[in-house]
Amino acid sequence: MGLGALMALGQPASLAAAGATGAVAILVATPLLGRASAVLALAGNLVLLYGFANVGIRAGDVAIPLTEVLLVAALLWALRGFRGPAGRRAVGWWAAFLGLGLAHLALAFPTYGVLAVRDFLIVLEASFLIVAYRLGGEGWPWLVRWLRWVYLACALYFAAYPAREWLAALSPVVGIQRDVPLLGQYAGAGPAAIAGFFFMALLRPFGRWSLAVAGLFLAELAMFQGRGDYLAFLTAAGLVLSGAGRGGRRGRVRLALAGALFAASFVAALVLPLAPAGRLGPVSPEFYAEHVATLLGREGPGAGTIRDRLEWARYTVGLVIDDPYHLLTGVGYGPSLTGGFQVRGGVPVRQPHNDYLETFARTGIAGLACFVGLLAAVFLPVLRAARRAPADDARFLWWIVTAMVPYLIIAAAQPLLAFPYGTVPLFTLGGIGLAVVDRVAVTRIHESSYSGDYANHMPR
Is residue 264 one of the residues assigned to a domain? Predict the structure, then answer.
């Protein structure tokens, strides 16, 4: 894995050694290798974001992202039977999505080559669902102990956001998709920060100090200034506050979040005055009022990006409806969905900044049905189980819900799931949640066996 990173940094002499190492790793596929590969993939995509998405192995015109290398090693470890119904149902949707994607890739690759492969990666990276189910089957307490350091690293790295240009100037350059600095790339930081906030607020891995880290995440969200982030954060908090149960041990989940929101807001209020400015403008109430108003069609910061998205969406929909055949099968992998639009510097924009619309355009109604079915098969069982699980499991499952919500919402306004920093966290955390759902269901059945009350505890 380290050799793969060296290759991305321009060390061609290590290609043979990297290939040999990879072959041995695949053949051995030890539990340690599989678990470490899954952990590294999640940590890299949460912390380094778009920078990590550009790390990999390059040999001539062939570029293999490090995320996919790690996925192969992790899959060989994780391919086992799925004992619970929630896991099996999600894997069925994943298999349908994968089969359809492979068919589209086979048709598009002779014409579009690497571009077709790039569009297919969302399907391939959904395989982290299987890896994560195996991780979650080993229990979640050890994951919390490990993830606390990952999210602490996120909080510290995200705090350097105002110095991103300085970080980029010092950083090595990586270039699997395009040449960019490894550090200073904060695309996709909003969903990771939201997940980090709720991780600290609900699970308190550092005790009372967790609230300080949660406050730091809240301040960072204010600096990122993303309209989708505002909506995702409020939606996630609303789900927990309205659905965590009444009274008893489960009611403490709601109280824990309410207290964390108050304490974190206090910390954020202390930290924000130190920030020179946010992504689009000053960190002030006036800015956020104007920014949110752009969603209603008013002029303000970032209003132009809304107009661009509407134009891309119209163009993409036009590609599909111009041919009735495309409604069923889509236009396939490879073609641009924005009419050749380019941003400053000549960087092409190939997606309409809506992952659901892109999936529909590329794979038609059939592909969109598989994609939405997969997301629902992952998210809904976790949400239902969070409402009924015992206190400790409920806190963990509510965190999984709040961690998935920002990815699901922001994917409608950004090409978030077109990159591994979106797909890997979404499907990894979702897969872990499904494993906990199935384990909790089995535990409840075993406990009910003493009273003979099986029917009321069967998973639905």
Answer: yes
